[in-house]
Amino acid sequence: MSAPTATRPAPAPPDPGAAPSPWRSELRRGLAPWAGAAVLLTLAVTLGTKAAQWQGDWAETHGLLRTVTMLLLGPLVAAAGCRQGGREHRRGTGDLLRQAVRGRRDRALAPLAPLVACVVAAQLLGTAGVYLATWPYSLGGGLTWGHGLLHAADAVFVAGLTAVGFVVGRVVKWRGAALVPALGCYVLLGVSAYVDTPLGRLAPAQEPGLSEEIPALWLAPVIAVWVGGLALAALVGHLARRRLLALVPLLAAALAGTVLVQTGDDAWRTDPRTQRLVCDDGTPQICVTERHRNLLAPAGEALSDLRERLAGVPGLPERFVENRPGHRIRRDGGEVQLPMFTPLGRSVVRGEMTDHAVYAWEAVAALLSPDCPDPSGGELDDVVWTYLAPTYQRNLSDPADALKWAERYEGAKGVAETRAGLKRLDRLRALPEAERAAWLGAYIAAAQRCDLAAQPAL
To answer: Which of 136, 146, 265, 436 could disulfide-link to 215, CB 3.0 to 4.6 Å?
Structure first.
């Protein structure tokens, strides 16, 4: 009698929980992390090369970020979405996947959702990083809730274009289909951003030309509904069994677009911080807007030598004032325009004055050459200008260079006039302090009145 044979137990079925999740596979081997890295790199390179033009000014940072998001990140994520959507066509796995248990919607959302999450996270992370780079050099002011909500609307814009590109990739079987949404977005968004028409207000990142304006709180939600509704309509129309459902987000987008077109400039208002002044205690006073309050001390330092030379001069304007929207500085109002801080990258870089001598020279220009019909000034302008701003290499500040320049470009007559100017400059410097102050007061008062005939002789 033979021994009974031992039977082996049947192998246990594989645990369905052990299967890797689609998200993990996409994040480890898919396009999503590379697309997120490309978004971060685009923001870093584009804004890094222009750091001197925005770093420190919250409004400039905000405007440039939104422009880059629309014109560069938009085409980039649309191309990435199209590339992801056309993956089944390139691999030839479309028929096989259609026989899978998962439905069409699940098969589409599995590769799309991680891609959207990565590009949106990268856009928000890059935006936060740029603002952190501005914070140490802040000129003053700050962002409002309206500005922050607009960046949230930009995240919806990035997600929506990714989804639209994905739909294009699933519909168009051409391998180079990613070029279609990329070029289309760049042309459409680029043209609409610079067209001053009611339809141009549909551009998601279009802002007014003046950076002194702030958005209304309702603007960002309306933009989000506008761009998100169009993208959702495209996605629902492609994936849903009842494609008429796409009419719901499409109707919402149409209503939001109508609001944007009809509202116009009412969505933006003047920032009150650009109207309020902050002044120091010097003579003449230096006054800047609250938006640039952190530049009050650097401006005072740049003009310290000028104010020292103007000490005791009678009849001076009371203050140098930064120009404000809607306010005209009049020469008979006791104010002189302070040299401009913007655009950044010229007078101001990362919260510091780039050249005190040039800034002082520009302040003297505003003092001696206000809005007169004849801006040429009198024959003693070079003398007074050089005395008040002597460190800037212009006019008579370097006698040898002034004579050389006159000989080269103006001939003997120019040399004679330059020698006469140098003698007058020496005479002005040699005057007793009280007499020089009185003479300067009479000269500046005549210049402020645009009365060249009343300027005193020297």
So the answer is: 146
Cα separation of 98 and 386, whole Å? 82
The answer to whether the predicted template modeling score (pTM) of the entire model surpasses 0.85 is no
Paired tokens of 362: 């520009």
**Residue 244 backbone class (left: φ over 0; alpha: ψ -120 to 50; beta: rest):** alpha
pLDDT in tens, 321-358: 998 877 777 766 788 899 999 888 888 999 889 889 88
Cβ–Cβ < 8 Å for 78, 182: yes
Beta bridge partners of 436: none
Of 324, 355, 354, 346, nearest in space to 337 by CA: 324
Residue 159 has pLDDT above 90, yes or no: yes
Degrees to nearest 5, angle at CA 47 with 45 and 53: 140
**What is the Cα–Cα distance from 69 to 154, expressed in whole angstroms?**
7
The candidate with the shortest Cα–Cα distance to 292, out of 323, 337, 318, is 323
Q: What are phi and psi of 395, to 5 degrees?
A: 60, -115
Question: Taking 50 as the threshold, does the pLDDT of residue 95 lie above it?
Answer: no
Q: Which residue has the tokens 């909500």?
A: 149
**For residue 444, how many C-alpha atoms fall within 13 Å in the half-sphere facing its CB?**
26
Alpha-carbon distance of 58 to 77, in angstroms, equals: 26
User: What per-residue confidence (pLDDT) applies to 90?
Assistant: 57
Contacts of residue 314, Cβ cutoff 8 Å, sequence gap at least 6 = 437, 438, 441
Give mean pLDDT, residues 65-70: 91
- Do 233 and 250 meet the contact criterion of CB atoms below 8 Å apart? yes
Per-residue pLDDT of 197-245, as tens digits, reads 777 778 777 776 556 788 989 999 999 999 999 999 988 888 877 778 8
